[in-house]
Every structure is written in C-alpha cells, then in structure tokens.
Automatic annotation (TrEMBL):
KW Hydrolase (keyword) present: yes
One annotated GO molecular function: cholinesterase activity
InterPro entries: AB_hydrolase_fold (IPR029058), AChE-related_enzymes (IPR050654), CarbesteraseB (IPR002018), Carboxylesterase_B_AS (IPR019826), Cholinesterase (IPR000997)
TM stretches of this protein: none
Family in the record: Belongs to the type-B carboxylesterase/lipase family.
Name the UniProt record assigns to this protein: Carboxylic ester hydrolase
Length: 489
C-alpha cells in the first residue's frame, strides 16, 4: 500500500504503518448517538474537512468494569475512555499488495454489556499480514444503550439498536473498504460469545442481506428475548431509573452513570437469573421478526458459508470453584430462561457439583445451540463445525478449554498469554498457526480446508467436526448420544 492517507466518502483519514500492516484506528462509522439520538437508530456520520488523524482508538461504549478482561487479554497502554460517543471502527490492512483483498469484520463479545473492538487480544495485525487481507473491528452500543427494548413505548424507539449499529458498520465497510484495498464482495463476519450471537441474529435480519458472504460464529448461536420478556425488563428498568411508561423524559435526562447504575440495580434485584442476559437481541417485527434459528431453518441465510463451534469447557468461565452451588430449582430455572427448555428432567442427569453445573451450561447453552444452528443451515449453505479443546493443565483460568480461550489462537496473538503466566510450547504455537490459517483460507475461498487440515463440511449423515487441540483431529459426530438426547436424530 503506497499511502496511509485514504479518502472515505465522509473525509480523509491518516493511518500509520506498524509491524507490516497499515492501521487506521477510531474511524467514525455513524453519528455519535448522544443527546437527542440516544436510544435511536444509528445515522451516517457527518463529513469532516481536512485530514482526520486515525492513530488512536475511539472511546468504548459505557460499561461496568470487567477485571477479567484486563487479565485475560493483557494490559492496554491506557484504560480506554468510555463515552456514549462510541461508534467507531478500526482497520488493519496487509502492506503486501494493492489488490482487492478479502475483508474480515470482527464483532466482539461481552454478554452484550462489556467489550470493545480495541481490546489488545483483537489486534488484527497478524491476521491481516499473514492472510494478506483487511481486518476490521467495531464498537457497538451495549447494555441498556444498545439492547434495552423501548419499542413498546411508541414508534419513536427502535429495538435491537446494538445490532443496527453493527449493520451500520457493515454498510460503512461495503461503501468504503475498497479505498483501503478491500473487496466489498468478499466480506466475512466473525465473532465470539455475544459477538457470535449477534451474527446469529444478523444472518436472520432482512436489513443485513448482501453485506457479507460468509460468517464464523465462535461460542454463540441463536439467542433472543421474546417481546413480552423484553417489555417486562424495560418497564422494570424505567422504574429503576425513576421514570414510568407515562413519563419517559428520564431516558434523556439521566446521566450515563445513572443509566449504568439502574442496569446494575436491575440485575441485583433478581429480575433475571444471575446467568441470564437482561440485555440481548429481541424478536421485533421491523428488525428481527423471527427467532434466528427458525429463520435459518427457513432459508434466511441461503448460500452463506458458515463456520460454527464451541469450546469443550465453556461453562467453566462462568461457574467455577468460587461459585456457589445452585439448587436444583435455580439451575432448572436458569436453563429454562437461557434456552427455553424445561430443565427439570435434564438437571437430574448432571451431578449437583460445580463441575456438573458448568457442564450443564457448556452442553445446553453453548453446544446444543451451536449444533441446532448448524443443522438449520446445512440445507441452505455449506457449514463447518469445530470444537476447541486446548488447555494449559494447572493454569487457574486456562486449565480447561474455557469460554473465549480460542480467541488468542484465531488472531494468533499468543504473546499476550505471557500476561497470565503462559509461555506457549511448540504444539500450542502450531495450533494457533493452523487455526488462523483455516480462518484466513475461509475468508479467501469460503472453505476452511487447508493443505495441512482437510476439514470436511458438516453433513447430517456424518457430522464431521474438527477438534482443535495440540493435535488436530477430524471426528464424526462427537458426543453422539448426548446430541440425540438433547436435540434428536
């Protein structure tokens, strides 16, 4: 790439060269959703005069503190600024050529209440350089600002604002990424946890059609609230904020801190089980009219190539030795709230221990949802299934293949693991190389099979699944008996 100064349709941006990549940070993809635009749909950014310095990340969406992210992903140079003015994206481009290259757009996780595209673990340098492509990470509105459904209070309010932010970012990419060397016809979206659940919804949303050709869902699938539950949460939230359905003025007059404090009080009040998501996508006629997995079964993502998978021990991040053992009634209620399943008969098949309850979450919230989503898509587009099994025995966090453990491997940012006391061995380093190569190959060709890994697609007759560990293996229909019991044959 000859220049780091690029003209977008809104103005020029100046990036920097670092470690074989050209990087632009903190580019606005929408007008700041502040003032009268709070709780409203995103709008295109205002054009600017002159050259905008794109060398620093933009503010992150207001969110509660999360010490786990800091330790898990390595320290940032500085604690990021939080602001409702948070709709920014970041671009990494390989400096190797000027040809139109595939684009990967990362949607971060964080239970729809935390996270940002600027976290160190999401640094796109390795992906962009090794894959000779463009990597984009985005921020979107979180918690009540992005996922409080106010639509029952009138047409002035839209639902699923955080998802609409993601669509606005993808529209910006489609209109502008060619100037950065990217091919707008070769966009792959990928994300983890709430990011993967967002992708599960985007695949079902009519307004997201044509914005990407492939998707990768890591540890997340179809996850939505029914409208009735969303309205109960909105009513309770408004009450915590000091307003009422007859007086919504507090939604504009409250400070950012007051919005977050009301959300925290609502969580602590027991409005939802401690494992449930108060703020998440909701079924809504204008934005997400059908539950995602049902829409996918009906062909909503026809011809979209999909990689989907989970980690072997997802639940160990959320339920561990410091967690209280829940009663049979509590865990059954949590299951019903998270999955819609009647949990009574399922709970009895797991030991009432911390490990047993973590396994319940792994199996029913993550793994079952991923398999159902894969099954829904295989008649409409190619699907590849994976399971991530790598762990570091004896490590306090990565001693199991826990939730989010695969992210460092996909981005091949293993040096960050030293911040939590891990020096990767040769097999671990090779796993990151091979896993990243599969993601890169998928972005280029819409198939993840490489010379090293002949990864076959997921079909109902064999259910081929790749197991990512220090040794990489292809397995047919892993956990067959469990799958038949939880999903059917």
């Amino acid at each position: 790439m000859e220049t780091t100064q690029i003209r977008t349709q809104y103005g020029e941006v100046q990036g920097v060269r670092e470690n074989g990549a050209v990087i632009w940070r903190g580019i606005p993809y929408a007008e700041p959703p502040v003032g009268d635009l709070r709780f409203h749909m995103p709008r295109p950014p205002q054009p600017w005069e002159g050259v905008r310095e794109a060398t620093r990340f933009g503010p992150v969406c207001p969110q509660p503190g999360n010490e786990l992210e800091n330790s898990m992903f390595g320290p940032s140079n500085a604690r990021p600024v939080q602001s409702e003015d948070c709709l920014y994206l970041n671009i990494w481009a390989s400096d190797k050529s000027t040809e139109k290259r595939p684009v990967m757009v990362w949607i971060h996780g964080g239970a729809f209440v935390t996270g940002a595209g600027s976290l160190p673990i999401y640094d796109g340098t390795s992906l962009a350089v090794n894959g000779d492509m463009i990597v984009v990470t985005i921020n979107y509105r979180l918690g009540p600002l992005g996922f409080l459904d106010l639509s029952s209070y009138g047409n002035a309010y839209a639902a699923n604002l955080g998802l609409l932010d993601q669509i606005a970012a993808l529209e910006w990419v489609r209109s502008n990424i060619a100037a950065f060397g990217g091919d707008p016809e070769k966009v792959t979206i990928f994300g983890e946890s709430a990011g993967a659940m967002s992708i599960g919804a985007l695949l079902a949303m009519p307004s997201a059609k044509g914005l990407f050709r492939a998707a990768i869902m890591q540890s997340g699938a179809s996850q939505v609230l029914p409208p009735e539950a969303a309205k109960r949460i909105a009513d309770s939230y408004l009450q915590e904020l000091g307003g009422s359905p007859d007086d919504l003025s507090v939604l504009q007059s409250a400070s950012t801190a007051e919005l977050l404090q009301a959300a925290d009080r609502l969580r602590q009040s027991g409005q939802g089980n401690t494992l449930s998501l108060l703020f998440q996508p909701v079924i809504h006629p204008q934005t997400l009219p059908v539950e995602p997995v049902v829409a996918i079964e009906n062909g909503a993502a026809k011809d979209i190539a999909l990689i989907i998978g989970t980690n072997q021990d997802e639940g160990s991040l959320f339920i561990n030795q410091s967690s209280p053992i829940m009663s049979r009634e509590q865990i059954s209620g949590a299951l019903e709230m998270m999955t819609g399943l009647n949990g009574d008969h399922l709970v009895d098949q797991y030991p009432m221990t911390v490990q047993g309850q973590a396994q319940i979450m792994t199996d029913l919230f993550f793994w079952r949802s991923a398999v159902r989503y894969a099954q829904a898509q295989i008649n409409h587009g190619p699907v590849w299934m994976y399971r991530f099994d790598w762990s570091q025995p004896g490590h306090p966090w990565l001693g199991t293949a826990t939730h989010a453990a695969e992210i460092a491997f996909v981005f091949n940012n293993l040096p960050l693991l030293r911040h939590i006391g891990i020096q990767p061995d040769e097999l671990t380093t090779n796993l990151a190389v091979q896993m990243q190569k599969a993601w890169i190959t998928f972005a280029h060709t819409t198939t993840p099979a490489t010379m090293e890994i002949p990864w076959g697609d997921y079909k109902k007759h064999d259910r081929t699944t790749i197991i990512f560990d220090r040794q990489i293996n292809l397995v047919e229909d892993p956990d067959h008996d469990k799958r038949v019991q939880l999903i059917g044959d």
